[in-house]
Amino acid sequence: MLNQIFWYHMFFGLVYWAYAQLNRSDSVNYFHHTKDWRNWFDAFSAGTDFVEWLAFPWINWFGFNYDMMMFLTTWLGFWGFVYFYLFFKENLRFNPKFEGWDAITIFMFLPNMHFWTASLGKGAIIFAGIGFLVYGLSWPAKRIFHIAFGSFLCYMVRPHILFAILIGMGVGFVLGREKVPFYQKYLVVFFAIGMSIFVYEDLVVYLGYDPNNLVDSFEEESALNSGRLQSAGSGVDMGSYSMPMKLFTFWFRPLFIDSPNLLGIAISFENALYIYMFSKVIHKDFLTYIKIAPAMVKMSAVVFISISISMTFVMSNLGIIIRQKSQIMYFMLFVVVAFMDWQKTTRIKKRGEIFNRIVEEERKNREEAESIST
């Protein structure tokens, strides 16, 4: 499976490389800006500069050209798929099926997920960071390196993503069904609160808000970003939408009727699949499940919902939405397949109980028959 994912992802690296030859791409700017840096440490800061800092030694010391850098970062994005795959496999008991097809296999080969994580840019780096991080959080005591490295990549590219995952980790750990001593749960909560306080001001400033007047600056910046993104082409007026419609737009658009181009039409098929998968949790048993779900499921749900809501306030361009949501859709898909996994486990338990009850009744009937004959 991982060999197939590797070659599939490298193919999308070639597709994106060809796309960048004919269309405007940030990867070209990253490459040329990196060549202009004279000191490696001058580029070390969160955001765009970090992409150039990461590329600096390869370009300026080892002489990598643009094509080589594109495939190097494509390879880095591949590691995100490796660790998400492992995360899925070790947290599920069965392989859930969609109409007879293995769900995890479908998830690992979604084209949009590969396209936006196969180039020199933030997409490949943040996706790899999230993959390392969630894999590490599945077994924190033995995967400190994965947690540290994943947290580093997430913070340096998009601090708010790390912020949301830390909060989700705290909530999931406290409310998860795992039997963990209370002192450990409270330690995790205090750690999450402490980290939130520590990164709060830097995060607010990074996002362009005023720490002393957060609400007003958030509204102003959101309106500014919304107008800027809407005027960039493929715009949607999300400012007039209700919250459910904003979330629907972020998660499932473009659809076939509003696809801006051929790429949008191709992505519409994937969005239709997302709608189908999401419909699986619209079930009366889902609320029952989420109350008793493991920590990783609750963490994924919190991360997905919190980031989705925050992004709907600043996203008004379908092109940007398509690119940004690829970072978090695996969290939703994991919640869906975990719920399906629980449903299958529950059905097997019920069948086992019915079978045991039948066997017990047959045993009692035999004993009664023997006693009567005796």
UniProtKB/TrEMBL annotation:
Transmembrane helix recorded as keyword: yes
Keyword set, alphabetical order: Membrane, Transmembrane, Transmembrane helix
Segments traversing the membrane: 6-22, 68-88, 115-138, 144-175, 187-209, 261-278, 299-322, 328-343
Domain of life according to the entry: Bacteria
NAD found in the keyword field: no
Stated name of the protein: Uncharacterized protein
Organism: Algoriphagus antarcticus
Lineage: Bacteria, Pseudomonadati, Bacteroidota, Cytophagia, Cytophagales
